[in-house]
Amino acid sequence: WYQRRVREPTMSSSSSSGKKKHKKKGSKKSQKTETQQVPQPEPQPVSQPVSQPVSQPAPEPHIEVAPQPAVHHVESHAAPSTTGDRRLHHTRQGASSGHHDVIMNYKTWDGGCWTARIQGNQFHHVKQGASSGHHDVIINYLTWGGAPWQARVTGNVFHHVAQGAASGHDDTILNYLTWDGSPWTVRID
């Protein structure tokens, strides 16, 4: 609490100079200035931040990794799907074993580099460097020799048709060229 002095002005008649005079309230004997109590909010305590000791991260364990042979199957930068990606098994031409993935990096008929995922009986295609793509029931790809083919998928079977052909054949594999032009085979697990 604190005190504030308040003067209440009173008006007197105008003097010859046109100025107004202020008189203090009360008689001449009580020329004291009145004081008024004005409530003030109580100060709130200021909380001081408590310093916490800084914890050091635990050192990472040292793990030695054996050198791996170079694989030319390029990883995709396309965002992973959250629903229904089919698991694919890839094998490079002439290799006795391969690897599993949910993507297939392939060259399309004009030589463009694309990534495909199989979701149900559809392909989800994303152009190299793009963050989104489109769904389609077909994939237009280049075979090992560079010929343009098209495929549809039903279950775990591909239906292949050469560009311009009236009919095609069914198979459980698709032979394609990856982004760097190397020959790979994909099978749906």
Which features would summarize this protein structure in a list?
single chain, 189 residues, mainly beta, 4-stranded antiparallel beta sheet, 0% helix, 36% strand, globular, disordered N terminus
The portion of residues forming beta strands comes to 35-45%
Question: Roughly how many Å apart are the termini?
Answer: 81 Å
The general outline is globular
The tally of strands reads: 14
Report strand order across the widest sheet: 4-3-14-13
Secondary-structure element string: EEEEEEEEEEEEEE
Largest sheet: 4 strands, antiparallel
Give the radius of gyration: 42 Å
Number of helices: 0
Structural class, please?
mainly beta
Average pLDDT, all residues: 74
Runs in which pLDDT lies below 50 for 5 or more consecutive residues are 1-34, 61-82
Percent of residues in helices: under 10%
Verbal overview:
By secondary structure, the chain is an all-beta fold. Helix content is 0%, strand content 36%. It has strands at 2-5, 35-38, 88-92, 99-101, 104-107, 113-119, 122-127, 134-136, 138-142, 148-154, 157-162, 169-171, 173-177, 183-188.
What topology emerges from the helices and strands here?
Layout: E1 2-5, E2 35-38, E3 88-92, E4 99-101, E5 104-107, E6 113-119, E7 122-127, E8 134-136, E9 138-142, E10 148-154, E11 157-162, E12 169-171, E13 173-177, E14 183-188
Antiparallel strand pairs: 1-2, 3-4, 3-14, 5-6, 6-7, 7-8, 9-10, 10-11, 11-12, 13-14
